[in-house]
Structure of GP-PDE domain-containing protein:
Amino acid sequence: MAEGLENTIGTFQHAVDLGTDMLELDVQLSQDGIVVVSHDNEIKRTTGADIKISDTKFADLPPLHTHQEVTFLNALPVCFPDATDRSFCRLRDVFEKFPAVVINIDIKNDDDELIAKVGELVREYNREDLTVVGSRLESVIRKVHQQHPDIPLFFSAKRVVQLVLLFYSGLLPFIPLKESCLEVVMPSIVWGERWADTVPTKYKVLARVVDFLLMSKVLIRHLDRRGIHTYLWVINNDADFERAFSLGAKGVMTDY
């Protein structure tokens, strides 16, 4: 989103034009049951309107601001005064516009209707081989897997913790895994330039511990051999790109 307004068809098209291999997006459910592409349910940050998507009909959603803050960018908020596409889009719109592009969907809420509709859309557009679905919430992952066992999943936060425990206990090779992708933050970005003066020392120490445990070449290689790809985020500078791929990541998620 450092090169365009987040979660718009125009910005997704720009990313595809630049050669991206996968689009990462988040979904919410509007008041009238539309699966909307948006990181936030409360959209004051992106629109200035103090409303929720879940309380608003899709047709009534306001346009996006032309200026937005990029959380993981080492810079001031970015501005796109000439942006022509300022509208929220539907997940259906993304599927129709990019039928051959791999799309990673993060379901933000444990909402049965949202979960069901995402699965239905994946099936409607025959995208089971081109879509990865998941959530930080294990309850969401379980429901997706129960309803649509053929849709690839990424690890929830709880499952990432379990993965690390299994790995360091030596049990991981003997445990079946339902997930197809490991998508985690690269903790080293927490003590980088962006948060050097804002993150308390105790959290930087915690990030270093997590980085030591999770950013393991052996773990990533083991997962890769089992057909589980690792993607790291949010990677926005050359040093982090180099480190991510040196660890064995198959890809990265970036604002550029």
Q: What stands out?
A: The chain has nine helices and nine strands. Residues 201-214 form the longest helix (14 residues).
